[in-house]
Design goal:
Blueprint: H1 3-11, E1 25-32, E2 35-41, E3 47-54, H2 81-93, E4 99-103, H3 110-120
Parallel strand pairs: 3-4
Antiparallel strand pairs: 1-2, 2-3
Helix pairs in contact: 2-3
């Protein structure tokens, strides 16, 4: 699976990931070349195009509210942090997105996952 196909797969369920709990009002999601791009309202009323995605859909937890829980029959895919960063920067330079809302499954423990996410940026 190439990086763009992996990104399409990882964004396919992100409309279920809440952003409102951090004060970021979600607006309708639009497909940008088959990748879901969310629109969010900024504190000053402006809008921003956000790429809402996962770094990995691999998760060792089985949280019943989560579409990526471990016991769900779902294809698991992951990005290497440097591959995700390169893909995001290409989308940013092309004007497709202005920011990222990055989440991840917890594969290999929370500390390992947090390190991978921070390495992407």
């Amino acid at each position: 699976m190439n990086d763009y196909a992996r990104l399409r797969h990882l964004t396919s369920q992100m409309h279920l990931e809440a952003a409102e709990d951090v004060g970021c009002l979600s607006l309708p999601t639009q497909a940008q070349g088959s990748v879901n791009v969310s629109s969010a309202t900024l504190p000053n009323g402006g809008r921003i195009k956000l790429l809402k995605t996962l770094l990995s859909s691999v998760c060792e937890r089985n949280c019943y509210y989560c579409p990526f829980r471990s016991e769900r029959n779902y294809q698991r895919v992951s990005f290497r942090p440097e591959d995700f960063a390169a893909l995001y920067m290409g989308m940013h330079r092309a004007g497709m997105v202005e920011g990222v809302f990055l989440s991840s499954g917890l594969g290999g423990g929370g500390a390992f996952t947090k390190f991978g996410a921070s390495e992407a940026f």
